[in-house]
């Protein structure tokens, strides 16, 4: 039997809090899985039957304890990860932007998967070791989540 490999769909949530942290995004360090040691946005896999917005809302809550109901698709990357344990991975990552006005509920809900969440200026992300899809987004000179239209 032949195995048919297909890309997986990931959702990365660009969380912004402009009144408190202008031009900052929420990131944490991956502690497990592929990309260990790299900084990431909140996010995860799109589940069967889920809309992009539902996935972004669910992953944001599961990972950061933050709630938001308004998301906008702002960028897409196509990433082929090098072989890990003899298997390469291919992800299409959809970046969904959300604006929050309160981060008092923010916490690291999955400390076995990632470090505490921190606010970092978008323009400073290129100084950090980033998860591959986020690195692609940051390296794309045509993309800046603070220049795109508001939600």
TrEMBL record:
Q: Which PANTHER family match?
A: 8-OXO-DGTP DIPHOSPHATES NUDT15, NUCLEOTIDE TRIPHOSPHATE DIPHOSPHATASE NUDT15
Q: Please state the span of the N-terminal signal peptide per the UniProt entry.
A: none
The GO molecular function terms of this record are: 8-oxo-7,8-dihydrodeoxyguanosine triphosphate pyrophosphatase activity
| Annotated Nudix hydrolase domain residues | 4-144
Which PROSITE patterns does this one have?
A: NUDIX (PS51462), NUDIX_BOX (PS00893)
Q: Could you list this entry's UniProt keywords, alphabetically sorted.
A: Hydrolase
Q: Give the GO terms filed under biological process for this record.
A: dGTP catabolic process
The protein here is known as Nudix hydrolase domain-containing protein
One short Pfam family name for this protein? NUDIX
Family affiliation: Belongs to the Nudix hydrolase family.
UniProt xrefs under InterPro entries = Nudix_hydrolase, NUDIX_hydrolase-like_dom_sf, NUDIX_hydrolase_CS, NUDIX_hydrolase_dom
Organism the protein comes from: Rotaria sordida
- Top-rank lineage group of the source organism: Eukaryota
UniProt GO cellular component terms: cytosol
Keyword Hydrolase carried by entry: yes
The keyword Hydrolase belongs to this UniProt entry's keyword annotation: yes
């Amino acid at each position: 039997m032949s195995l048919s490999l297909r890309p997986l769909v990931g959702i990365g949530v660009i969380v912004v809090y402009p009144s408190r942290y202008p031009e900052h995004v929420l990131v944490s360090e991956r502690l497990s899985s592929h990309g260990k040691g790299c900084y990431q946005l909140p996010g995860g896999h799109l589940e069967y039957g889920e809309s992009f917005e539902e996935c972004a809302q669910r992953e944001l809550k599961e990972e950061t304890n933050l709630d938001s109901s308004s998301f906008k698709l702002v960028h897409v990357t196509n990433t082929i990860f090098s072989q890990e344990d003899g298997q390469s991975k291919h992800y299409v990552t959809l970046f969904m932007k959300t604006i929050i006005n309160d981060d008092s509920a923010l916490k690291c809900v999955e400390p076995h998967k990632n470090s505490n969440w921190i606010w970092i200026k978008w323009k400073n992300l290129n100084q950090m070791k980033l998860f591959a899809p986020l690195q692609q987004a940051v390296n794309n000179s045509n993309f800046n989540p603070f220049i795109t239209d508001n939600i």
